[in-house]
Amino acid sequence: MSEKIVITGGTGFVGTHLILELLEQSDAELFCLVRAKNTSAEQRLHLQLAQVIQGSDYAPELINQVKKRCHAIEADLQGDITSLATSIPSGVSQFWHCAASLNYEERFAAEIYDINVEGTRKALALARALNVDCLNYVSTAYVAGRNTGVILESPMAKVQSSNVYENSKVKAEQLIYAEQDMKFRIFRPSIVIGHSRTYHAINFSGMYGFLRRLIQFKGMMARVQRGYLERESIRMNVDPDVPINLVPVDKVAKQAVAIARSDSSNTIFHLTNRTVPTVGEALEVLFSTVGLPPPKIVQDTTQYAWIDEKFNEKIEFYKSYLTGYKQFDRSASNAALGEHANTTRYAVTANNLNEYCGWYCAQLAQTRSQVPVSR
Prior knowledge:
The protein is α/β, with parallel strands linked by helices. It has 2 domains: 4-195 and 247-271, NAD(P)-binding Rossmann-like Domain (Rossmann fold, 3-Layer(aba) Sandwich); 207-244 and 276-325 and 344-369, no CATH class. The chain contains 13 helices and 13 strands. Strand 4, helix 4 (109-130) and strand 5 form a beta-alpha-beta unit. Helix 1 (13-25) crosses helix 2 (41-55), helix 2 runs antiparallel to helix 3 (62-69) and helix 9 runs parallel beside helix 13 (350-369). The chain starts with a strand and ends in a 6-residue tail after the last helix.
């Protein structure tokens, strides 16, 4: 009899790749909690997975396994889901909770906490009702907040979060830690970017959001002060020498599933990258991608001109990821993965970061070309 696994967030960026890895690495039957949006839950799930298969380097034949082994159950984590236990066959071994709001703005705090904290509480209740063997929770490495230095694979006891999103994930992890009757694992990815070979992505927050802000700022400056950005570099007060931990989505999914299938007794795992660019290198690539000279790094904000102030206001959210040295310990992850822990396939360097950024800008340009001129 094949293993049965329940998944939330299966239409999301990490969730889609987790499903495909589970299909490749196991013979499990998957039951995915999915909201219906302009189509049935099952159609939405299968269409999203087909898009990721086509955009990434998964075998095209995997779509047949999607149709055979992936079952959508219409659900909304902002509603009651515990009652869904009667819709799911008995004998579920693993529960993957990937659903999350990636929003970060304070004005959306109520919605963020509802999805990320209360949604986790509901997922735990459903997992208990199903009597699962283990709950796997996808968190973020940035539950570390403003902590610097070596970040251990351990519970976050004292932390000052940089934004409401990080704080919501800290609170969700605390719900998991408090679980006494069920085994759990917490996976903490860093800044997730596109596929390591095709650069394909379906979520455009994080690095992609920063790129959009750059493009918007360049367009605004072309209207209000044409030629300024060709003469002057934008000033930024960041730490150019600290690493910025960008990790391809396929590494996150492949290693999470492999760890879950290992015999590791640890409970917290960093899904971070070993080879990453520095903040200075990454900014140079990002600015170059949109046709801007690299920023000028200054020691404090008193050196800002009014245009620098306007720009830095627009990218304020991202500043916490561009300052403060963090080294993410991977002792538990590496031990669970063994010889597969340190493959160089997933390295992100200044050279290939240009490819990730180029792929996204091409997608953005294509999307904009399809918008009517009147808009």
